[in-house]
C-alpha cells in the first residue's frame, strides 16, 4: 500500500484494482467463514433450530425464542455468537444442560479494574464464564451492596460495571434454573427400607435419583402416607416413614420458594384472562396439577430428547409444544414467527455495516487513484448495503406493524439509511468523492452506533403508550429523522471541507464543490427539521392537548432551527464563507446529537423515553471530538497563515483593476 501512494511508482498508483480485489476477497472470505464457524452447532449431528420458533413473552411482547436468545447473549457478552455456537444453541445448553453452560465465556467485563479487583485472571477478549465469576461471588455481592445505595451521579465507573455484572449474573442464574425441576436430586433418592413403601410408585428408575418433577407426580402418594403418619406416635415411625416425612418437608420447602422468573413460555387462559408463566411459575400456581399439563409434558420430552441427542424426537416434541400452545384460544392469536426468524437470519444491518466499511475503504482509495473501476465498485457496494438496510426496515415494519423509528436504535438505523440516499444523490450530481464518503463512512458510523444500542435490550420492544398513535406521529418522526440526517450529513461534509481547506488550499474547484454540498445538505436538513417540528406540534396537540409546551425535546428542535437560520442568514449576507458555513454545520450536528440523545439523559419531559446508560458516554465523547477537531483546525490554519503558506486573494477595485 505504501507503493500505491508514492508519486514515483506510477504503475502501482494507476493500477490498485488487483490489490483492492485481493482485499475484498480476503474480507469476504473471512467474513463468510466466520459466519460458517459461528453457525456450527455445538454437537454437529444435532440441531436446535426448531426450538427458535417457540413463542415467548418478555416485557409485553410475544417473540420467537431465537430472538430472546440473541438479545440475552448480546446483553451478557456483547456478541451474537459464542465460540462456535449460535445464541439459540447457547441458550438451549443453558436451559437443558446448565453444568456445561457454566463454562461458556459469556460475561463481558469492560472495565479491567473490575477483573483485577475481583481477583480474576484477565482475559484477552474481556469475557468470562459463570464458573470463573462464581469464585468472586462474595466480592461482587459486597461491592454491589455498596454501590446500589448510591445515585447514578455518585457511582464511579467501577461501581456501575459491578452493578451491570451483578444484574447479568442474577438473570443468568434464573435462566440456568428455568428447568431445574427436571434435574435429578440425590436428596429425593430413598432406598427401599420397608415393604410398605413402594419406591417405584415415586420413581420408576431406582438407579436414578428422582427430580422435583418426578416427586410432584407422586404428590398424591406422599399426601396419603403423610395422613397415615400423622396418626402415629413419633417413636413408632419406621425408617420408611421417616423418609416420607423428609421427602415431604423438602417438597414443601421448595414449593414455598417457587417464583415466576423467566422465561415465560406457557400461556394460561382462565376466566377470560391471559397469563404467561414460566415452568416454575406454572408449578407454583397449579402444584401437582402442573405435572399433567400437556405443555409441561412436552417440555419434559424436549429436554429428554436434547440430552439424548435424538433429532427426530426433539423436533417432534418442539412441534407438539407449539401445537399445544397455539391450541389455547388467545386474543390476539400468537404471531407467526417466520418473518422475525428471517429477519434474525439475514442480520441485514450487520451485513450492511460490513459492506459500508468496505465501500468507505474503496472511496478513500478513489481519492488517490486514477483507476476508474474503484468508484463504481464503491457505488455498487453502497447500493447493496442500502438494499439490505431497506429489507431490514421493511421486515421490522411488517413484524411490528408500525414505522421503524420509535426508539433510539431504529432512529439511528433510519438516519444511516437516509444518509446513504443523501450521499448517493451527491454522487449522482457529480460531487465526488464527497457523496461516496458521506454514504459509506457516515452510514457505517451510524449503523455501528445503532449496534451499541442493540445491546441494551429488545430493539422491537413494546411502544410507549404515547408513541402508539396515528398519522401525525408517523409524519413527525419520519420528517424530523430526515432533518436529523440532513444536519448530520452536512456536519460530516463540513469536516471534509475543513480538512480540504487545511491540506489542499490550492484546489479552489474542489473547495467550492464541497462548500456547495455543505450548503445544500444543510438546507435540506433545516427544511425537514422545520417540517418535523411543526408536525410534532400537531401530534402533541392531539396527544397532549397543546401544540407547544417548552419541553426539553421541543426546545432542542427550536435551537437547531434558530442555529440554522443564523448560519444561513450570515451566509446570505456574505458574513461567512466556506469555513464559517462548515463550522456552522458542525455546530448544528452537535445540537442535533444533544436533542437526539442528550434530552433522554435528563430524565425529564414528555419526550424522555429513550434513556440508556451508554448515551452519556457517547454524547460526551462526540462533543469532545468535535471540540478537538475544531481546535486542531484552528491551530493548523493559524500556523499556515503564520508561515505565509496562505495569502489572501487580491480584491479587485470597482474599476476592475
Please outline the helices and strands.
Elements: H1 10-14, H2 17-39, E1 55-58, E2 61-64, H3 65-77, E3 81-82, E4 85-86, H4 87-96, H5 98-101, E5 105-108, H6 112-118, E6 127-129, H7 130-134, H8 137-147, H9 157-176, H10 212-217, H11 219-229, H12 239-256, E7 266-270, E8 273-277, H13 279-286, H14 294-308, H15 311-327, H16 338-346, H17 348-367, H18 374-400, H19 408-428, H20 434-454, H21 471-503, H22 508-544, H23 552-572, H24 578-602, H25 613-642
Antiparallel strand pairs: 1-2, 3-4, 5-6, 7-8
Helix pairs in contact: 3-4, 8-9, 11-12, 14-15, 16-18, 17-18, 17-20, 18-19, 19-20, 19-21, 21-22, 21-24, 21-25, 22-23, 22-24, 23-24, 24-25
Question: What would you say about this model in short?
Answer:
The protein is mainly alpha-helical and 657 residues long. It folds into four domains: 49-179, no CATH class; 182-256, no CATH class; 347-457; 464-643, no CATH class.
Number of strands: 8
The backbone outline, from C-alpha atoms, is: elongated
Give the strand order, joined by hyphens, for the main sheet: 1-2
How does the helix and strand content classify structurally? Answer: mainly alpha
Mean pLDDT: 81
Low-confidence stretches: 1-44, 648-657
| Rg computed from alpha carbons, rounded to a whole number of angstroms | 31 Å
Content of β-strand: under 5%
The number of helical segments is 25
Largest sheet: 2 strands, antiparallel
Portion of residues within helices? 55-70%
**Total discrete domains:** 4
Distance between the termini: 49 Å
